[in-house]
Write a structure and sequence with these properties.
- This protein has 2 helices and 3 strands.
- By secondary structure, the chain is an alpha+beta fold.
- A 3-stranded mixed β-sheet has the order 1-2-3, covered by helices on one side.
Length: 98
């Protein structure tokens, strides 16, 4: 049986973000979901950088949910926490701030 990204997303809808109370798909946390020809699955869970350590149980829950799908191969789930880029500072018209 071939596993599809839709099948994985359906399973991940059972995993709830403890911060928003939404499932992690609806919350927009699942990124880069890929399923190989061998039914190996890889995806990212995008989180707030401040929540890093607290979200490891969520990553494990998502990974275990996908592993439980029949015929799934290897599963890799990665937490990613990107900080928003800082606003550009005003240019230094006199070249004094080096």
């Amino acid at each position: 049986m071939t596993i599809t990204t839709e099948h994985i997303e359906q399973t991940l809808r059972e995993v709830t973000d403890p911060v928003t109370g939404k499932d992690i798909v609806e919350a927009g946390m699942v990124k880069g979901l890929q399923v190989s020809d061998n039914n190996d699955v890889v995806f990212l869970i995008s989180i707030d950088p401040k929540m890093g350590a607290q979200m490891e149980p969520l990553r494990q829950e998502a990974e275990n949910a996908v592993r439980a799908i029949k015929n799934v191969g290897q599963v890799s789930v990665i937490l990613t926490a990107e900080k928003k880029a800082a606003a550009p500072s005003a240019p230094d018209p006199h070249g004094m701030n080096k």
